[in-house]
Amino acid sequence: MWSQNAIQATNAWLKEGLKPRCITRDLKWGVPVPHEKYKDKVFYVWFDAPIGYVSITASYTPDWEKWWKDPDNVELFQFMGKDNVPFHTIMFPSTLLGTGEKWTMMKTISVTEYLNYEAGKFSKSKGIGVFGNDAKDTNIPPEVWRYYLLMNRPEASDTLFTWADLQAKLNSELLNNLGNFINRVLSFVAKPAGAGYDSIVPDAPNAESHPLTKAYAEKTSKWVEQYLDAMEKVKLKQGLKCAMAVSSDGNAYLQESQFWKLYKEDSAACAIVMKTSLGLVYLLACLLEPFMPSFSEEVLRQLNLSPEENLSFSEEKGEIAKAKSPWDFVPAGHKIGKPVPLFKELKDEEVALHREKYAGSQAERSSKAAADAEASKVANQLKGSKLSDGGPKKEQKKQSGGSKSKTAEADITVAKLDIRVGLIRKAEKHPDADSLYVEEIDVGEGTPRTVVSGLVKFIPLEEMQNRKVCVLCNLKPVAMRGIKSHAMVLAASNEDHTKVELVEPPESAAVGERVTFAGFSGEPEASLSGKSKTWEKLAAELHSNGELVACYKDVPFTTSAGVCKVKTIANGEIR
């Protein structure tokens, strides 16, 4: 099983025709060629490195042949970036076949595209990006790095590392979702009798007959099935998403159960909810162990279970079957350990420091600052120019209030708008309005915003799911047919308003990052005042240009991953 990009890269080499390729280099550093005639040469690293996989195993154990010469019982999986594909799919296998011996050949290869950094590429020479030692120096825990990089794994296309996205995923997904669920469950169980269970797992007979618990157990079982399927197919990102969905459902289960009321009003039902939730905590530790092993070990310690004995998830031990009855994972009467928070919030000031520290050398930052200054200068020049027909300008009538009025107008800039990259988590038809959608949109705040949009006639419901959009976040909330809308999705329309398209940020733009405009700086208004008509005045200047780029006047909507665009509507108005 090979990833598609591995197949494409290999076929490209084969189509060129196999030709002689040098396996040595004239360098001082490297593995020397063991031949007197070539003593001044070293092996080319990617000819030698795959052979090193075998020699490294041999140096680790005298039983190395049980791994490398037992193809009937051993499967070889390899993971790498796309630059290294041909050396592992053509050159290394050819070397093994050329020996005439029975080697374990690669069965599965998973290849990633590029991970870029903020607005450009990683560069060690320029000091741009976060590398191994840098990650350690940030004091951000390894499980956070592992989660972020795997959730952002460029499996099918290039992805982008941004500090804003790392912060959003840590604070929203790890802290507020996963960490909150686990700590909430363990802390309640750990409370003394009369307020909790004094750290003792309660008994929960007839849990399968509890309707809410049964419904969520069925959901959990389906997520586990999808998780196992994704992991078997080396779809690591999808596997991680399935595991996190178990946590999201766990939070929903707790909230819907209202366990704090059950504890006083229906102790048997509360025991079922808490024992089931403890089982979900255990299950999450197992599902997430391939991604965040240190996190999973800590969760088991807080459950007072041995990581060495319990961190497995196999059919042999029956764990997979138990996913259908999570209340069976942790036995009644077991005493849990001491709950402690698993994640710490990453604050804005910390993000700013990290972004500055890893933005590159002083020279690079100076060059970037100069470029930004030049961009601002051009933008300011454009702001002062007339972009219509170039004809003679009519003399403007003087307004009463003179300079005061001009000052007020000058204060209204596009920087007043809080436009962010949003991700539609869910969209559905409004129950009381045929022309409206109700969306749940993640804008990097932890809890998605409810947004109502009049897009039913223009965009099919299936195209509103799980897609990135530009969201105006500081409009005053307004009720639309009984549902309050807390933001507005921006879209472009043609001249007669018969066609509407969403304004789309780049796929790799970070959820929650603010859309910016070169030459316009400042903080957005907390809430756009209806009296000032700021939004109405600025909206008149929003449009898509001839190249389908969303603009304020002539200045593009810009994210760290590039500009925002529409699909086909040129010179349309944006609202």
UniProtKB/TrEMBL annotation:
The TRNA-binding domain is annotated at 413-516
EC numbers for this chain: 6.1.1.10
Which reaction is the catalytic activity of this chain? Answer: tRNA(Met) + L-methionine + ATP = L-methionyl-tRNA(Met) + AMP + diphosphate
Keywords on this record?
Aminoacyl-tRNA synthetase, ATP-binding, Cytoplasm, Ligase, Nucleotide-binding, Protein biosynthesis, RNA-binding, tRNA-binding
Protein name stated in the entry: methionine--tRNA ligase
Where is it found, in Gene Ontology cellular component terms? Answer: aminoacyl-tRNA synthetase multienzyme complex; cytosol
GO aspect biological process, one term:
methionyl-tRNA aminoacylation
> Native species of this protein?
Panicum virgatum (Blackwell switchgrass)
The UniProt annotation puts the region (Disordered) at 380-408
Question: Any keyword Nucleotide-binding?
Answer: yes
Give the EC class as a word.
Answer: ligase
